[in-house]
Task: structure prediction
Amino acid sequence: MLTKRIIPCLDIKDGRTVKGVNFVNIRDAGDPVELGASYAQQGADELVFLDITATTDNRKTFVELVKDIARHVNIPFTVGGGISSVADVEPLLEAGADKISINSAAVRNPQLIDDLAKAFGSQFVVLAIDARKVANQWTVHTHGGRNPTDKKLFSWAGEGQQRGAGEILFTSMDHDGTKQGFAIDPLSKLNELLDIPVIASGGAGNKEHFLHAFTLGKADAALAASLFHFGELSIPDLKSYLNSAGTPIRI
Amino acid sequence: MISVIKYNAGNIRSVAFALERLNVPFSITDDLEEIRKADKVIFPGVGEANTTMRYLKDKKLDVLIKDLKQPVLGICLGMQLLCSHSEENDTTCIGIFNDRVKRFQPTHNEKVPHMGWNSLTLTQSWIDASVAEKFVYFVHSYYVPVNPHTSAITEYIEPFSAAMQKDNFYAVQFHPEKSAAVGEKIIQSFLTIR
Result:
C-alpha cells in the first residue's frame, strides 16, 4: 500500500542550516548534510532543503551543498529557494536533486511551471503555495507570506496542476508557527480538487496533527521543521503512532 | 567493472552516488566497447520514453543493450524500455520482455503519478528475501502488468510488476538508489549475481 510521507524541512543560509537542532547524535547541528543523513536514518521519507539566502554568490555554495547531500543521503530530496528559470534548475538537477520547488517566481511568471515540467518532467516540479485567509478567501502570498497577490489558493493550485506541476506544497501562513495543527479544511478541499499529491505544511505541533492532516485533510504527505529540529517530536515516535492509528506509513 | 550507461537520464548521478556509498567501482560511459566488456551493466532512467528511445537509437545503445550477455539492471524508465512497447507516446522499446507498458488510470483516491514509498511482495525472486514486504520509493505514471517474468509485485490501483527478470536481464520499477537501506540491499542483490 502506498504510504503517507513525513518530510522534515531544513532552511539553509550560506550553506548552513539556519535553526540549530537538538539531536543527541549530531556532531555539527549546522551541517545540512549530517542533519539530512540523520533524518534519513531515523525514517524520514523525503527531505526539503530551502535556500533562504539565494543571492547569486551563494547559489554556487548551494549547488555544491546539493551535490554533497546527494552523495550522502539515500532518500529523495527536494531543493528550493530563489529558482526563477530553467537555467537555475539545471545545475541543481545535475548536482543530484530529485525535485525542485518553486514559489514566488511561478506566481510572477506562471509559464515557468510549463517550462520546467517540459524540460525535466512533472515529477521534478513541486509548486509551493503560501496562502492565508483574507476576507474569507484563501489568498496566495509571496516572499515568505509577506506580499498578498490577486491569486486564490484553489484556482492557483488547479492552474499549477494544469501547467504541469507534479505536486503541491501548501503552507497555511495562518497556521505556520502556531503549533495548533495543519489547516484541515483547505487541505481536504485541495485534495478533492487535484489529481496530483498534496503536501501539508504549517502548524504541526503534535502527533495528532499529522494524523488529522492525513485522515481529515486527506494529505499525501506532511512537512514540518522546528518540531523535528528541536527534538519535540522524533520521527520514529511519530511514525509508530501513525502506524498504530491505522495510517499507512513506512516503518 | 560495473558500467552505468551514460545517456540523457535524470537519475544517473543518484545511481552513481548509491554505488559510491556501497564502495563499488564503476564507470559512467556510453562507449559501446566498454559497456560490452563490463562485468555488469546498469541502465538507469528517468524521463520520457519516446525521446529517450530516440536518443538510445542515435547512439546505437538500443542494439547494444539487446545483445548484452552479462547481468543488466534496468531502473524505472530503464525497466520500461526493456519491454516491447510503451503507451507513453506510442513508443516501440528494446523488447527483452514481451510486455507492453501501460498508463495508470487515476481513481478517486489514487493519484497519478504513483509517488512515494510502497511495499514489495517477492515472487520467485533474485531479490534478497530479507526485503520482502519492505518499502521502496516509486515515481512513475506508467507500469508493466504482472507477467511470468515478474519478480516482485506492488499494488497501486492494481497489482503491477515492481521487479522483473528474464535470462541475464533484471529490472526494477522503483528507485533502489533512493530507497534507503532496503534499496541498498536490492542493489547488492544485483551486484552479487553470478
